[in-house]
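User: I'm writing a tutorial on reading structure tokens. Could you give me a worked example: one chain, its sequence, then its tokens, then a sentence or two explaining what the tokens reveal?
Assistant: Sure. Here is the example chain.
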Amino acid sequence: MSERARSRAGDEPTVEVLQQAMLNDELMLYYQPKVSLLSGDIVGAEALVRWSDGVNGIVSPSEFLPLVERSGLLHDLTLHLLDQVIDASSQLPEHQPALSLAINVAPDDLASNAISQRIGRALDDKRIRPSDLQVEITESAVMGNVDKVYDDLGRLKALGIKILMDDFGTGYSSIDRLSQLPFDALKLDQGIVKRMGSSQQNLDVVRSAISMARELGMTSVAEGVETAEAYNFLIAHGCEEAQGFFIARPMSLNDFCTFIDQEHNFGGSQMGRIHQASLNLLRFRKGLLDAAFCRRIGSGATLQSLTDPMLCVQVSESRLGLWYFGVGQRLSAHRAFTDIEHPLRDMHSSGVEFVELLAQNASAQRLDQALAKVDIQVDHLSALLHALERHLLIHE
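And here are its predicted structure tokens:
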């Protein structure tokens, strides 16, 4: 029996076999589609390595990646696969909306600056656009190597490349540490997603992770979505993207191109985001109250930190404004949505006025009048958001 046959018959492959497989382009990428839970559109795919020599079929990464990592071949493999992803992006159907392909990297790849340099050259050569590519790194890897990866993550960010934290929920990220790293998205670990249906506590973990991503200005992406129930729960709670067997299994590039050209009936809704907007209204008012309370007890220095970013000069940069003037605009055909804009602007202006009164040490009576005005506007806006929820429930 040959060395290759022995390795594929149950024994772990040797370094030499793996090196030859790389030379023969047998280590290749399969693509697992990702869907927007807000619209139901296919938005891209995660690139996953597979081993295929055309004789023994497809081999799972669990059977060969441990040796790749131990043998020091991972860096070469990552760069090899990165070139494949860059080439693949140019082969996607041109009439489709922008699709992003995501590739997994390791801390050593980032520490050497090789990833940002290779991507930078591809951008300079116009082989890809920044929106064509995303980079993923696992939570445990980045949290154990922050000093090694921080600079290159910053370089990727400067290039316009989105950075995703993979397998979120399996490591020990703190909110403070997350807020200091340039991540654009948190990918909820598939184990957490799959356990959602087993207990209320597991549901709460997923719900909290989605909320934390939003609080940090990041997109939430769920992995391991295998049932319609899980898919719909994620929609209802405002998760933004999903991948998993319910949507599709990993597939070859040709099959992926065919897949995205086909008609699909993946659901999508902003119900979860509208509910979050209602919560942001409460946070808006609470921020004003907190600022007033701290001012009363003589802690005026905390005023700005309490009101930003919920309250800033531009309404479009507020928590509620980021939704309304961003992805919310997909609902602009609905009168129930457009009715929100002017009340939102009015409420924001009243909040700015209230903070200005605080800064001017206005009398308690003037502050009470200003807050009463905000309360009326918050109640009105809350009613409009509830009406939009009812409208979508009936007409979507």
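What the tokens reveal: The chain is about 55% helix and 15% strand. Residues 364-395 form the longest helix (32 residues).
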